[in-house]
Design brief:
The protein has 174 residues and is mainly alpha-helical. The chain contains 9 helices and no strands. The longest helix is centred in the first third of the chain and has 30 residues.
Length: 174
């Protein structure tokens, strides 16, 4: 006989540890591959978007369990994508001689439609599992697509609303 609450608790703590390690790895990779200011701006979205996703989960009554934590781990690398795209557009416009404010606003405005469509497409590909998997497993896995959608929408909002202001403040030239 095993103590099921203890087993579940250990599993959740293990996933939380893995989530934190994954976040640190994503941030470290960003710092290694990009200029330090760009990396810090893009990777700052990882904890913010994760916190927003957790808040949305709470508001929707989604519990923190192994499936929801696994969804956060799966989507972690995708969270920085929107910020990287926005920053690339900003750097391109700066390189063409636009002032910082115009470069930031222009890149966010120009890149929002394709980033939004990509976010919707990625989120949508996880929802068919709600109809395919049924029974107890279906009940258990139903949070997976919602958590991914929450995290990706938070990432999109962060990239469009926060990253441009950080760019204009900290990145002055290409």
């Amino acid at each position: 006989i095993t103590d099921q609450p203890q087993v579940v608790g250990n599993s959740v703590w293990s996933f939380l540890r893995d989530l934190l390690i994954s976040m640190l790895v994503v941030i470290l990779v960003m710092i290694l591959l990009f200029p330090i200011k760009s990396a810090l701006i893009a990777s700052s979205g990882v904890p913010v978007c994760t916190a927003v996703a957790l808040a949305l989960m709470y508001l929707c009554g989604i519990t923190l369990n192994t499936v929801s934590l696994a969804a956060l781990i799966v989507v972690l690398g995708m969270i920085v994508d929107d910020s990287i795209i926005t920053m690339d557009g900003y750097m391109d416009k700066l390189g063409r001689g636009l002032p910082r404010i115009e470069a930031a606003c222009g890149s966010a405005q120009e890149l929002f439609p394709p980033m939004f469509m990509a976010t919707v497409a990625i989120s949508a590909m996880f929802f068919p599992m709600l109809g395919i998997i049924s029974g107890y497993l279906g009940d258990f896995i139903q949070t997976f697509p919602w958590v991914i959608t929450f995290a990706l929408m938070a990432s999109l909002a962060y990239a469009i609303l926060v990253v441009p202001s950080l760019e204009t403040r900290f990145i002055h030239s290409s």
